[in-house]
Structure formats: structure tokens, C-alpha cells
Write a sequence for this structure.
């Protein structure tokens, strides 16, 4: 079993394990070590060929292996790079890597609308988390942002392409979970978009999982649209005997009183759905009596819904000083960054 | 992408599409070049043929016919067609003038050439003349850097262009009034 | 007059056809390899020749071939990269158009060495007419028995197919090319696995540039050692350089690696000197390589004559050197504006980014917009540092080298011509005329004068 050391913490992992998975194993072994886990916006364990695109999970390999100790010349995508015995990796301990990752985050944000106040994903958005943890206070981007009109892709899913970061997860869900992908990525470069090209609905039993895997608010549940901010809802674990053999029936109900505002899959501590659910469970069973409620859902990580998470890790005196106005703040931050 | 070049993503108002017999034979020959189960490899060459048979652009009808012929999902065809810059996703003129604008051509005067053509044809790059004769496209490097400025029209390269030469070319094309395609022999 | 290996017969009448090609010694390498050599012996000659990939990366071809996995019962492929799209580069077009059989011959001989029964040549879509020329040559070769079953009674079967692209620079990246060849969008694959292990249709594949494969012909004919006698150090043999920009004699030249840069740019045998008042800058290897001031192109930082070799061109590293790249050479006279050219480069990469990974998708557009602003006299001093920082955040952080290729021209332009960028902020009105340096060249301030 190869041994890998990430930010000075070692673990032995099975052959073929990626750096990201190894880091998650360290994080699962001891919560205090979770800082070694790189953020991941496009990788999704259960979706084959996912990962490698967003570049947020880049890490620096400071030692290739015991056999070949040379460092790797460029940062590598930890989600797509297998560990070698004796490999040493820097995730939070290398300033050049932190700088590079900040750069990736900035790129992801320059064309993002930052419309969190009206976005249903706010509070459970991975891009929010990412920018809190790795982003800058102000944007240096001054040009018009790329925009698209929001569209309905069927009765239950809304596509806000403007918010999309092109992680390809929804395409892989459609490819791997459903029979008959009708949407994909069209055009190229910075005008590439998730689309069905011709106007049509994405309709099949598992299409709702695209909402769960979307790291941002690009694909949202129309049945939950503007119903409530997620942090005002009460999540409970529930299950039902679903007729669909591919559906586990294990869900989270997001309640307001006894009203089921929405139904989602259960996500693990890395924000990934543990088992995919069918559209009947997700969209049609909005009566709490249709479910066996197991108890409150413990949200382990993940944004303001876990509350109090945003104690900033690194000292940022800038934000602590008595409220300067925004342009001044940006200017000072810029000076500091230099 | 500006509004004027937005793809036509509906079948409304576009004509039906069917491959000609000769084109079908050519498509089958293309598919046969690839190993069994790998016929998708022929998609790009077949899209070229479809474009040539559909007045120089790929309508939804044309792409759906390609999908049907090759046994592909429609979205697989749309994804590919929209990736490559030689596929036009909106109607174009009888002649598509692809003028190279990339650095080596710029050093030899492509900016002036494009500007001249815009003025002469009364359109911006990316647009089609009202009479449907010319579509002007400013494109990236065509691999003719030693003989710039240049333009491609159909399969032909027109190189070492001057204002006089390009004026003569426009007149010649206008008089001939016959569509050119990349696939022309 | 230097020796010509690829272009020796290029002006002979009828050389485009099989008969004319054969009359000038064509297909000898196939005869020699299939009748008298083992595949490994051919590989050995290629290794001995020191041939390096002519597409831009300059990776040793023999080594690339030796990495090819050879599992039982799995087909192997040779794929020739004729997606020549690097701005400044038009050598492969010239070669394929004039003497297509040398590529066909090289593909047969190389495939024999690699054990590939099928090979593909992926020609960029814009070169449709070149693809037709190749198809014609392949048909002739097939009819004459150079392709097909049991070639020359050797038991070796081979066939070649031509595939056209449809307008995408990124398909020159080998894994994007393979995706495109499989009928998909040209999104580069994440490596590893490398094509040598999992390439076309998940089978072991070698992807080589047109010129590289053509060079196998003289290497097999004359022996690798003979080939390696030309050139200096690890830059062996001849190289096709396509020359353009503000020179007197644009065209494609076959040079012996190792001639001086001065000879190449100024002698009448090659570029013939400046078309205009004076040279200002040179991009010697295609738009992706660093741009260098003319003086730094002629002399290395230590004051020695710079040579047309992989090593000499990159001497001085990124700060003071450049690269051989694909041999897409173009020179600037002093009427040209470096900011305008840098914007033009940036616009190219913005247009050609596949959009798959975020730093390139977003960063190339950002570079384009900031440079456009500067060039039009609407920029600020801070924009120069901003550009520097954006390119730094793209470089090295992307899936494929397009990100680096977009970053380097910007970085090198700022490094060597920063005062010209500053001029665009201090002389806003003046630069609004697109030909702002046409009448009077930009004068370098003393602090930026190249030593």
C-alpha cells in the first residue's frame, strides 16, 4: 500500500487512490486534519471521468515518490493524480500553490453573477464556500460579465447558465444515470454553455440528480424556487420504499413546520450524494406522511447551513478593522496583495 | 457571440434536409474508414458534407439528419457542430469569405484588408450582405502566414492580397454567382 | 547551399504524383525497411538520428516511439498531426501540397516500426484541398501496392486514412486531436494516461507531426547516424522553417539546424532581411513562444551568436531566450506595435480556448479585454501589472499547454517591451490611430534598452 504525506500528515492508501481521495481519508480519520483536503468543484466520486476541469483541487507534489523523488514541475489536479509510494504533497503549506489556487478561484468568479441574494443555492453553494476560503475580498474584473437568460428545462428544473462554472457534472449524470442524454456542452471557450441546443425538456426518472450534483445555483429545483432560504428550513433524514429499483429512497426532507419544501439526496461530508434518488421521490412526494422520518439531518460541513463555520482560518486584520467603505477596502486589500 | 451570429436552434422557418444520393454514398464510404463501433469518427467529415448540401450552414434539420444517419443522439451532433468554427450555425451568403486576422497576417496588413472589405460590402465581419451574396468572417490563422494578407473562400486560398486583388476577386465571384464550399473539389 | 533532405526534389516536375516521386527515389525507405530491416531496427535508426518532434515540443521521436505500449491483441495506431494551426506555421501545408508522397512513405515506414496496421492523418479543416491531395496520393500508393495487404511480400499490412477537422486550433494538441478524430469536441484529455498507452479508441497510439514523419524517410534511407551529422548537439538534422512577417523573402525553408539566426534572417538564401526600416522583434517558433527583441534574437545574453537550434534559441531561459517551437517564424519591423500584436495574440487564444478548464477559459478572455483596452488608449498603468498577474495565474495551471501558450506571449511582451505598454497609457490620443508607429517608430527608453 503506497504511503502518501499531505501537508506533513501521512496515510497508507490502496493502489490507484488519487491524492484527493487520500486527503479525504486523512480528513475522515481525524476531523482536525481536514485542512489537507483540497476543494473540488467538478470531481464527483460516483461519476466516472469527472474531475480535472475546474482546477481548484490543484496541489503541489513536492516529492514524486520514493523511487523518483523529483518534484512535479507544475501543480497537478489532485482528483486525477494517483498517489505513488513516498509521495509528498503540499495543499495548504505552499504559498505558491495557495496563490495559484486563489487565481483559479478568481477566474471562476470573474463571470459569475454573484447574485447570491436571489439564488436558491445560497447557503449550500460550493462556490460560496470556495470563495470564502480561497477568494479575495474584491474582484479585479471590470468588464461586462457573461450573461444568459434563465430557462426552464422541463417542469421541475431551472437552468441559470449565468451561474454555471462548467463542471460537467450534470452532463455526466445525464450520460451515466439516465438513458437518453439530451443536454450537453455546446459552443467553446468562454461562450461554452450547458444546453439542449434546441428548446426541449430534460425528462427522465433521474434527471433531478443534476440539481444535487450542481456545485452552484445553475441547476435548481423549480418546485423549491424562492420557497425559503435553505438555512430557514429543517433538514431531516427520511426514507420510503421506492418502486424504482434504481432509487434508494433515502432522502433528506427540507421542512418548514410539517411542510416538505423540497426533497434531496443525502450528501456526505464532502458534499456528494450518497445514493441517487428518482424524480418521483424528489418532486412528487411532498407530503411528510409519504416518508418514514429517521431524525434530524446533521449537516457536517457546508456553508451557513451548518452555522458558525465561517470563522476565518487565516487572520485577516483588514476585515477586523472598523468598517471602511467598500472602495477603500478594495484598495487596501489590493495594496496588501501586492 | 453577438446577436447577429446566434445559432438558429429551431427548425421553424428552415427547409427540410435530406442527403443527396451521392452524398449518402460518400458518407457511407467515410464511415467504413473506421473500425467497427467507432463510426462516430466520421462525424466531422459528414457534417462538412451536410453543410455543403444545406446552403453552407448547419440547420437543426441537417444536424438531425446526420444524427439519424450515424445513429447518434442529437445533442452529440450539436455539441460537436458548435465547437468547430468552420461550421456555420446560421444562414450564410453564397460566398463565405474567411479573412485571416491573426498576428502574422496582421503584420502584413490584414486589419486594412478586413476594414476594406467591411466598407466595400457594407457589413461588419460576421454579417451577410443584404443580397445574400457574401458573408464576411474574420477568422484565426489559416496557415498562410508567408502569403498574407489572405482569405479563404470555399476550398480555395487567395493569398498575397492587395486592395486591387481583393476588389477583382469580389467582382469575379459576384459575376459567377455560384456557391463555394470547403468540400469543393 | 545547405543539404536538403525533405525538399531535395520538391521542384522536380511531377513530384506530386507517384510516378514522379518514384522516379526521384521515392519509397526506397519502405523497400529498405520492409525487405531488410526489423521494426526494432527502424526504431533504432530513428533513435540514432536524434530526431526531435517537429510539431513544437521537440520531444525525441525515438523515445516517444519506444514508450508505445504493445499489449497482445490490441491494435496500435500512428496518427499524423497535420492540424497545423500555430500562427506563423505553414511548413506542413507546403510539404503536403508539394510532395505528398513523402508523408505517405514516412507513414508506411514509421507504422512498420510501430507495428500499426492503420494510420490516420488528421488535416485541419481549412486545408481541405490539401486533404484531397493526400487522398489522391494515398489512392495512388494503394493502387501500386505500397499500401494494403502484405506490402512487398513482407507480411506487413497497412492502410492510411485522411480525416479532416473543422476549425479548432486546440486540435493540434495531441489528445484533443484524438478526441476530434473520434468524432468529438476537441477537448484535451487529462494525462496520464498518455496516448502511448491509451490513445485513439483507447489503444496505444503515437501522434507525430507531418514533418517528423517525413524526416523518417531520409533517416531510414541514409541511416540515423548520417542524419545526426547535420546540426549541433541535440538539435540534429534539418528543420523546416516557415518564415513570414516583415521580411523580404517569406516562404518555407529547409535549414540545417545550427546556422546562425543572423544568417537565417538576413541572408538572401532565406529571409533576405527586413521589409521596412529596421527589425524590431522576432517570434521564431510560432505565436506561443516568447517574443524577443531583434538584438536578443541575434545574440544570446552572453553575447554569442544565437543559432537556429533548440538549445541556442532557448538560451537565457524565459527571461532572455525563446523557443524553436514549430518553426513558425515571423519578424516585426519598427512600424509594428507590440501592444497591438500582443492583443492580437491574446484574441487568438481567447478564440481558440476549448473552455474546458477554468483558468484558460476565463483567463484568455480577460487578457484579451485588458489588452484591447490598452491598445485603444483606454488603459491604465495598473493594467500592465494586472496582465502580468493574469498570465501568471493561467500558466501551469491548465489541463493542456494552450494556457501556457496564451500566457507566454503576454509575459515576454511585457518583459521586453514594457515601455511600449506604458506609452499606450501616457499617449492615449496617439495610439488611437491604429498605425501609430507607422510613420515614426517607437523609441526605447534607456532603461529598457537591451544590453
Amino acid at each position: 500500500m503506497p504511503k502518501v504525506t499531505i501537508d506533513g500528515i501521512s496515510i497508507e492508501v490502496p493502489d490507484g487512490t488519487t491524492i484527493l481521495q487520500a486527503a479525504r481519508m486523512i480528513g475522515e480519520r481525524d476531523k482536525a486534519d481536514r485542512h489537507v483536503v483540497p476543494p473540488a468543484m467538478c470531481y464527483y466520486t460516483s461519476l466516472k471521468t469527472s474531475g480535472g476541469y475546474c482546477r481548484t483541487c490543484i496541489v503541489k507534489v513536492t516529492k514524486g515518490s520514493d523511487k523518483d523523488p523529483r518534484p512535479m514541475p507544475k501543480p497537478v489536479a489532485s482528483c486525477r493524480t494517483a498517489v505513488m509510494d513516498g509521495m509528498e504533497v503540499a495543499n495548504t503549506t505552499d504559498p505558491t500553490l495557495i496563490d495559484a489556487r486563489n487565481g483559479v478561484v478568481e477566474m471562476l468568479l470573474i463571470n459569475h453573477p454573484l447574485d447570491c441574494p436571489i439564488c436558491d443555492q445560497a447557503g449550500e453553494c460550493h462556490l460560496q464556500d470556495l470563495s470564502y476560503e480561497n477568494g479575495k475580498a474584491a474582484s479585479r474584473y471590470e468588464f461586462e460579465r457573461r450573461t444568459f437568460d434563465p430557462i426552464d428545462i422541463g417542469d421541475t428544473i431551472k437552468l441559470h447558465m449565468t451561474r454555471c462554472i462548467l463542471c460537467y457534472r450534470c452532463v455526466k449524470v445525464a450520460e451515466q444515470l439516465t438513458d437518453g442524454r439530451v443536454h450537453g456542452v455546446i459552443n467553446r471557450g468562454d461562450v461554452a454553455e450547458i444546453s439542449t441546443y434546441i428548446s426541449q425538456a430534460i425528462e427522465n426518472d433521474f434527471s433531478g440528480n443534476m440539481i444535487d450534483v450542481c456545485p452552484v445555483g445553475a441547476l435548481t429545483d423549480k418546485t423549491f424556487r424562492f420557497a425559503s432560504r435553505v438555512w430557514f428550513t429543517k433538514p431531516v433524514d427520511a426514507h420510503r420504499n421506492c418502486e424504482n429499483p434504481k432509487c434508494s429512497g433515502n432522502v433528506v426532507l427540507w421542512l418548514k413546520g410539517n411542510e416538505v419544501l423540497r426533497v434531496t439526496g443525502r450528501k456526505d461530508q464532502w458534499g456528494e450524494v450518497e445514493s441517487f434518488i428518482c424524480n418521483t421521490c424528489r418532486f412528487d412526494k411532498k407530503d411528510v406522511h409519504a416518508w418514514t422520518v429517521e431524525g434530524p439531518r446533521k449537516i457536517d460541513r457546508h456553508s451557513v447551513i451548518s452555522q458558525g463555520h465561517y470563522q476565518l482560518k487565516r487572520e485577516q486584520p483588514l476585515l477586523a478593522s472598523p468598517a471602511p467603505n467598500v472602495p477603500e477596502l478594495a484598495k487596501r486589500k489590493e495594496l496588501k496583495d501586492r | 457571440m453577438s446577436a447577429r451570429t446566434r445559432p438558429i436552434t429551431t427548425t421553424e422557418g428552415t427547409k427540410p434536409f435530406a442527403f443527396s444520393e451521392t452524398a449518402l454514398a460518400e458518407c457511407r464510404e467515410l464511415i467504413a474508414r473506421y473500425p467497427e463501433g467507432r463510426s462516430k469518427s466520421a462525424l466531422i467529415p459528414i457534417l462538412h458534407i451536410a453543410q455543403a448540401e444545406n446552403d453552407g450552414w448547419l440547420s437543426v434539420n441537417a444536424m438531425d439528419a446526420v444524427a439519424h444517419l450515424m445513429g447518434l443522439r442529437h445533442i452529440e451532433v450539436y455539441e460537436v457542430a458548435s465547437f468547430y468554427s468552420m461550421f456555420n450555425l446560421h444562414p450564410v451568403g453564397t460566398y463565405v469569405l474567411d479573412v485571416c486576422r491573426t498576428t502574422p497576417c496582421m503584420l502584413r496588413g490584414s486589419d486594412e484588408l478586413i476594414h476594406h472589405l467591411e466598407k466595400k460590402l457594407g457589413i461588419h465581419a460576421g454579417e451577410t450582405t443584404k443580397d445574400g451574396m457574401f458573408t464576411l468572417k474574420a477568422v484565426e490563422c489559416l496557415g498562410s502566414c508567408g502569403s498574407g494578407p489572405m482569405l479563404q473562400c470555399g476550398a480555395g486560398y487567395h493569398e498575397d492580397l492587395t486592395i486591387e486583388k481583393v476588389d477583382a476577386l469580389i467582382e469575379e465571384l459576384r459575376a459567377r454567382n455560384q456557391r463555394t464550399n470547403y468540400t469543393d473539389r | 547551399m545547405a543539404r536538403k533532405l525533405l525538399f531535395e526534389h520538391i521542384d522536380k516536375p511531377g513530384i506530386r504524383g507517384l510516378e514522379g516521386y518514384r522516379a526521384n527515389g521515392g519509397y526506397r525507405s519502405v523497400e529498405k525497411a520492409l525487405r531488410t530491416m526489423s521494426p526494432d531496427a527502424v526504431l533504432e535508426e530513428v533513435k540514432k538520428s536524434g530526431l526531435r518532434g517537429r510539431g513544437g515540443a521537440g520531444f525525441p521521436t525515438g523515445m516517444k516511439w519506444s514508450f508505445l505500449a504493445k499489449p497482445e491483441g490490441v491494435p496500435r495506431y500512428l496518427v499524423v498531426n497535420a492540424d497545423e494551426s500555430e500562427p506563423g506555421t505553414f511548413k506542413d501545408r507546403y510539404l503536403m501540397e508539394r510532395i505528398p508522397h513523402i508523408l505517405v512513405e514516412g507513414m508506411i515506414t514509421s507504422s512498420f516500426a510501430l507495428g500499426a496496421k492503420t494510420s490516420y492523418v488528421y488535416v485541419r479543416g481549412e486545408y481541405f484541398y490539401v486533404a484531397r491531395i493526400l487522398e489522391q496520393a494515398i489512392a495512388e500508393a494503394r493502387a501500386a501496392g505500397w499500401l494494403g495487404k502484405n506490402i512487398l511480400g513482407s507480411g506487413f499490412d497497412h492502410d492510411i486514412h485522411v480525416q479532416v477537422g473543422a476549425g479548432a486550433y486546440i486540435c493540434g494538441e495531441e489528445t484533443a486531436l484524438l478526441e476530434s478524430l473520434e468524432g468529438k469536441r476537441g477537448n484535451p484529455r487529462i494525462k496520464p494516461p498518455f496516448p502511448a498507452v491509451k490513445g485513439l479508441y483507447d489503444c496505444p497510439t503515437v501522434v507525430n507531426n507531418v514533418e517528423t514523419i517525413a524526416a523518417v524517410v531520409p533517416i531510414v534511407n541514409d541511416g540515423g547516424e548520417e542524419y545526426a551529422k547535420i546540426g549541433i548537439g541535440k538539435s540534429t538534422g534539418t528543420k523546416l522553417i516557415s518564415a513570414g512577417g516583415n521580411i523580404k523573402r517569406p516562404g518555407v525553408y529547409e535549414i540545417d539546424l545550427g546556422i546562425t539566426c543572423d544568417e537565417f534572417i538576413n541572408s538572401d538564401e532565406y529571409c533576405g532581411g527586413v521589409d521596412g526600416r529596421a527589425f524590431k522583434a522576432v517570434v521564431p517558433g510560432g505565436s506561443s513562444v516568447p517574443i524577443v527583441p531583434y538584438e536578443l534574437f541575434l545574440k544570446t545574453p552572453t553575447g554569442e551568436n544565437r543559432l537556429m537550434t533548440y538549445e541556442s534559441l532557448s538560451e537565457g531561459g524565459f527571461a532572455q531566450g525563446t523557443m524553436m517551437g514549430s518553426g513558425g517564424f515571423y519578424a516585426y519591423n519598427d512600424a509594428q506595435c507590440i501592444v497591438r500584436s500582443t492583443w492580437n495574440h491574446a484574441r487568438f487564444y481567447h478564440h481558440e480556448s476549448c473552455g474546458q478548464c477554468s483558468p484558460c477559459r476565463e483567463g484568455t478572455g480577460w487578457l484579451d479585454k485588458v489588452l484591447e483596452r490598452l491598445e485603444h488608449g483606454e488603459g491604465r498603468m495598473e493594467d500592465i501589472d494586472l496582465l502580468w498577474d493574469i498570465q501568471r495565474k493561467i500558466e501551469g495551471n491548465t489541463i493542456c499547454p494552450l494556457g501556457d501558450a496564451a500566457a507566454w506571449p503576454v509575459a515576454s511582451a511585457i518583459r521586453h517591451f514594457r515601455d511600449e505598454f506604458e506609452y499606450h497609457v501616457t499617449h492615449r490620443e496617439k495610439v488611437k490611430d491604429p498605425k501609430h508607429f507607422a510613420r515614426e517608430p517607437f523609441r526605447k527608453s534607456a532603461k529598457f534598452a537591451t544590453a
